């Protein structure tokens, strides 16, 4: 559906919202008033993504701010200064309400400023599977994917959002394996609201509890510190072992500085030492009641002392103590096939108890269809 059709949707909803730039201070004030927001939708994240131009936008109902979003603009080669406008895990609006009233004005605003397409990731769930159900699926040779698993709890808000986006001409971008060029559609989360530390621990499987206990018995000490160089050295080692491309130290320095400048408690670096040796390190990012495990690294040497489990347990305990509703272990692939190498990731995270969650995923709205087709072809060629 075109931007004109979106305007009709906004009028039919009976709500006239306007969209315009807001200051980082006003944006942060709105974020802090919410119970939970993705760190990717904080003003500081725009200062982390230095390869993108960023802008804070606000939705107004009269003079009242009713929504906010961080937009990242990225020019695409050979597209005559046109940009892709990206709102990762956002925007922060009332997704349970009439979304046309929000997305119509957004499309008009961004098209007028040279965007050829919008990409966004609604922070709404569509399905949830508990750890016991995930375990059953892995053991069942007839179940290959989470989406094949019976008994998953469906979320009516997520179903409504994805249905409305599809009707309005938005195009889903999430691939079958759950990982694409953007952020993962499938995640693993531990609910914390209303639970005690003992209840969370007892919800973990025997292996996780044993590893946490073993780390304590071996004398692993977890502290919160600022040794980014030590973290990065361990992270590069982990990348070599697990065969992924590491980010440079400068990226983490920028992220740490930007997020801490916005809120001293926004990001924490956890360091696990055993007899003077750094054996694991993790980064925790928190916005409101949402605590997120962002990055982790571990040493191949002394893996038997279970420094990674010690770091995770320290972060979970701090999230509980801080009144968080959820501890987010971030992305998983939806595979439950025991022969798939990716299944180990969901097995590891399912050991914490918690639940596998499918989100709405990322969606594109072409604002200039011909330009978007060129962009889409360019991206498909890059992925080959």
From TrEMBL:
Transmembrane segments: none annotated. It comes from the Bacteria. GO terms for molecular function: aminoacyltransferase activity. SUPFAM superfamilies: Acyl-CoA N-acyltransferases (Nat) (SSF55729). Signal peptide: none annotated. Keywords: Acyltransferase, Cell shape, Cell wall biogenesis/degradation, Peptidoglycan synthesis, Transferase. PROSITE patterns: FEMABX. Pfam families: FemAB. Belongs to the FemABX family. This is Peptidoglycan bridge formation glycyltransferase FemA/FemB family protein.
């Amino acid at each position: 559906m075109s931007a004109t059709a979106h305007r009709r949707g906004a009028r039919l909803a009976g709500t006239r919202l306007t969209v315009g730039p807001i200051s980082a201070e006003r944006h942060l004030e709105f974020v802090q008033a919410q119970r939970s927001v993705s760190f990717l939708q904080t003003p500081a994240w725009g200062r982390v993504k230095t390869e993108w131009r960023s802008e804070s936008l606000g939705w107004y109902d009269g003079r009242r701010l009713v929504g906010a979003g961080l937009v990242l603009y990225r020019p695409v080669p050979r597209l005559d200064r046109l940009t892709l406008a990206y709102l990762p895990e956002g925007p922060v609006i009332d997704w349970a309400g009439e979304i046309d009233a929000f997305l119509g004005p957004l499309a008009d605003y961004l098209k007028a400023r040279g965007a050829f397409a919008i990409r966004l990731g609604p922070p709404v769930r569509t399905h949830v599977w508990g750890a016991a159900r995930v375990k059953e699926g892995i053991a069942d040779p007839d179940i290959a994917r989470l989406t094949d698993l019976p008994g998953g709890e469906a979320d009516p808000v997520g179903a409504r959002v994805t249905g409305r986006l599809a009707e309005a001409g938005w195009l889903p971008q999430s691939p079958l394996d759950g990982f694409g060029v953007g952020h993962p559609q499938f995640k693993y989360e531990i609910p914390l609201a209303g639970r005690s530390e003992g209840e969370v621990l007892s919800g973990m499987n025997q292996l996780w509890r044993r590893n946490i206990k073993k780390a304590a018995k071996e004398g692993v000490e977890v502290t919160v510190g600022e040794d980014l160089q030590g973290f990065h050295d361990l992270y590069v080692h982990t990348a070599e072992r697990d065969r992924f491309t590491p980010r440079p130290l400068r990226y983490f320095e920028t992220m740490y500085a930007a997020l801490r400048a916005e809120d001293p408690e926004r990001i924490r670096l956890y360091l696990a030492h055993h007899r003077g040796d750094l054996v694991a390190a993790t980064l925790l990012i928190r916005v409101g009641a949402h605590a997120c495990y962002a990055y982790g690294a571990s040493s191949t040497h002394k893996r038997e002392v279970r420094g990674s489990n010690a770091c995770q347990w320290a972060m979970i305990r701090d999230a509980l103590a801080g009144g968080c509703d959820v501890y987010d272990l971030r992305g998983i692939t939806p595979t439950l096939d025991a022969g798939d190498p990716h299944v180990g990731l969901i097995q590891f995270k399912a050991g914490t108890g918690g639940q596998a969650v499918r989100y709405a995923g990322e969606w594109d709205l072409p604002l200039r269809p011909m330009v978007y087709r060129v962009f889409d072809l360019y991206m498909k060629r890059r992925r080959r």
